[in-house]
């Protein structure tokens, strides 16, 4: 049986990459947080030797030095990350979404009604959409230029939809002027899913932030769409938090019935209390549901003790094996969350994995 593997966070059916930052000078450690003495392309060097079908990159290629960003510096960083990924993976399809650190100022995606895309000024997000449009197919460019979202048919029967949900982020202050559907993105999502349903396709959704971080109206309407198309949406993937976690969606009409799962693969770069990590997903090639998820990490403390030696990556855990679940389908993971509520040791184990072996 052929099994698809992919990566999230950075990168076997689908590799999903979140937060990989390439050859950006390290900042000093004045804030007291652990920093890596290794170059930030260490995960890319490792992944050259992995067997990968697709790469999912979930945004935040630009670092957290939000006070010093500009269109020029962000363009250089995004270009460096994309080029490094292309060099590493060659002909393997790479699918990426925008994060909240790509625009400048940080978090600010400007709805077209306040800065039309045909106006080339410092307020519009046009520069960013034009930049990322050069990395995708001509077919997908129209919606990328419209608002940073697009869709790709990876093979017959398998579609991925890439959203720019940061526009609905609570910290996107432009939304304070009105909570309507910016760029008509949610309307487009519903129409694209309807066409996919009619064409007999299964769909993965890729976006940056969790929906609870969006404005309530944006999140509410998104949940309605997930509920309507639960029969074809087989997995969702996001980034943003740097932590290794999952969320279970439940039916709007029956809150006891789980109908979708959102996976977060962590981050290829270190963060406070978090070791560098990436995740490999094994996916059924027919149903396109996730069968298992493996998290790979290296110990940042050990790596910094030997800065001239490449870090030793190792398998932290397999989700199915660690939690004893038969599948990663929505109902199985919903049952797991109920077990965590009763079993504090199980909850502590999940939290330890969520923080990616933080006590290094």
UniProtKB/TrEMBL annotation:
Gene3D superfamilies reported for this sequence: 3.60.21.10
Subcellular location per the Swiss-Prot or TrEMBL entry: Secreted
N-terminal signal peptide: 1-19
Cofactor(s), names only, from the UniProt record: Zn(2+)
Domain Calcineurin-like phosphoesterase: 46-243
Translocase is among the record's keywords: no
Key words of the record: Glycoprotein, Hydrolase, Metal-binding, Secreted, Signal, Zinc
A cellular component term, taken from the record's GO annotations: lysosome
Pfam families in the record: ASMase_C (PF19272), Metallophos (PF00149)
Keyword Hydrolase: yes
BP terms from Gene Ontology: ceramide biosynthetic process; sphingomyelin catabolic process
The Sphingomyelin phosphodiesterase C-terminal domain, residue ranges: 272-356
GO MF annotations, alphabetized: acid sphingomyelin phosphodiesterase activity; metal ion binding
PANTHER family assigned to the protein according to its UniProt record, in alphabetical order: SPHINGOMYELIN PHOSPHODIESTERASE
Family, as annotated: Belongs to the acid sphingomyelinase family.
Protein name as it appears in the record: Sphingomyelin phosphodiesterase
């Amino acid at each position: 049986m052929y099994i698809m593997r992919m990566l999230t966070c950075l990168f076997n059916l689908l590799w999903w990459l979140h937060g990989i930052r390439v050859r950006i000078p390290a900042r000093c450690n004045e804030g007291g947080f652990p920093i890596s003495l290794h170059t930030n392309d260490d995960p890319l060097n490792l992944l050259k030797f992995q067997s990968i079908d697709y790469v999912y990159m979930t945004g935040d290629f630009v670092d957290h030095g939000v006070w010093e960003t500009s269109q020029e510096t962000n363009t250089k960083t995004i270009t460096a990350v994309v080029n490094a990924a292309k060099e590493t993976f060659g002909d393997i399809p790479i699918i990426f979404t925008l994060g909240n650190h790509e625009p400048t100022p940080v978090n600010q995606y400007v709805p077209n009604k306040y800065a039309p895309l045909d106006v080339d000024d410092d307020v519009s997000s046009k520069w960013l959409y034009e930049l990322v449009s050069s990395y995708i197919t001509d077919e997908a460019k129209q919606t990328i230029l419209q608002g940073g979202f697009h869709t790709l048919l990876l093979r017959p029967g398998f579609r991925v939809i890439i959203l720019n949900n940061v526009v609905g982020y609570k910290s996107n202050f432009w939304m304070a002027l009105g909570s309507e559907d910016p760029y008509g993105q949610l309307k487009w999502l519903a129409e694209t899913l309807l066409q996919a349903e009619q064409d007999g396709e299964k769909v993965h959704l890729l976006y940056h932030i969790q929906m609870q971080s969006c404005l309530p109206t944006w999140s509410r309407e998104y949940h309605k769409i997930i509920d309507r198309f639960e029969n074809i949406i087989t997995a969702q993937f996001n980034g943003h938090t740097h932590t290794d976690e999952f969320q279970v969606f439940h039916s709007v009409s029956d809150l006891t019935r789980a109908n979708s799962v959102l996976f977060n693969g962590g981050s290829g770069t270190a963060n406070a209390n978090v070791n560098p990590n990436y995740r490999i997903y094994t996916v059924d090639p027919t149903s396109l549901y996730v069968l298992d998820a493996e998290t790979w990490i290296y110990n940042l403390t050990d790596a910094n003790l030997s800065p001239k030696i490449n870090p030793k990556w190792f398998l932290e855990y397999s989700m199915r094996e660690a939690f004893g679940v038969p599948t990663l389908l929505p109902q199985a993971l919903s049952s797991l969350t109920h077990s965590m509520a009763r079993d504090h040791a199980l909850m502590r184990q999940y939290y330890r994995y969520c923080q990616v072996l933080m006590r290094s």
